[in-house]
Amino acid sequence: MERILIMVLRLLPHVPGWAYKLWTWAGNDKHSLDEKYALLQMITRNACRAGRVTIDAHGVENIPSEPGFVFFPNHQGFFDVLTFLATCPYPFSLVMKKEAANWLLVKQVRLMLNAIPLDRDSMKDSIRVITEMTERVKNKENFLIFPEGTRSRSGNKLQEFKGGSFKSALRAHAPIVPVALIDSFKPFDTHTIRPVTVQIHYLAPIPYEEYQGMRTKEIAHMVHDRIEEVVNANAQ
Q1: What is the pLDDT of residue 24?
Q2: Per residue in 145-166, pLDDT tens?
Q3: Cβ distance 112 to 25 under 8 Å?
Q4: 196-202 and 143-144 as β-strands: parallel, antiparallel, unpaired?
């Protein structure tokens, strides 16, 4: 996590003010979701510059302007969510592993985005998360969920996508937005502070009409293959 230290040191004059806002805004309704998201975007973009991380974003125009869609990216590392915060123009929530839900700063981001913690070892909790996410997407919230379930430890190589992660989008009749992340493991999951470039490719959304009637495993394979094609074509 050497890069995080560089980020903090270079932004040290701003850290107290930003930390105060994160702690006081998280978990209350005094500020709108748009205000909270704008704060997170500002902090994320400044942190990227300070940490010598360039984000090369493609296909931002593919993100639906109508809310109620779900991002399905490959999962490479701890930096993945920051890549979305830095580039996505619309607020979103996400499903995250329960173990990280109360980590310092992660907890504040979770509360700001109203993210859903998931106990990956509990079938009962998985059903709860699917149900909650379905209802929230129906109510025009945007979501991000990692269909691999856990981050890859093989660089730009994708793991299998789990069909169950697509149940909420299917039940909510929501557009699926495949997203290809490339080199997103490098900022936080490698021991270097050299300048790095992370690519994010927002692919064309898949409307419900295109995948209705398919089994979730079939949807998972389709989304996996579309992302893998982009990763293989653009990874160095």
Answers
A1: 95
A2: 999 988 888 889 999 999 999 9
A3: yes
A4: unpaired
Q: Do the Cβ atoms of 130 and 164 come closer than 8 Å?
A: yes
Average pLDDT (205-226) is 97
Amino acid at 59: G
Nearest to 208, CA basis, from 30, 64, 5, 8? 64
Instruction: For residue 223, give the nearest of 142, 163, 136, 149 by alpha carbon.
Output: 163
Q: Are 155 and 199 in contact (CB under 8 A)?
A: no
Contact 156, 183 (CB under 8 A): yes
Pairing of strands 93-97, 116-118: parallel
CATH assignment at residue 101: 3.40.1130.10
* Residues counted in the chain: 236
The tally of domains found in the chain comes to: 1
Q: What's the domain range around 88?
A: 2-234
- What gap in Å lies between CA 37 and CA 98, rounded to an integer? 22
Q: What is the pLDDT of residues 200-210, one digit of tens each?
A: 999 999 999 99
List strand residue ranges (DSSP E) for the chain, in order. Answer: 53-58, 70-73, 93-97, 116-118, 143-144, 176-182, 196-202
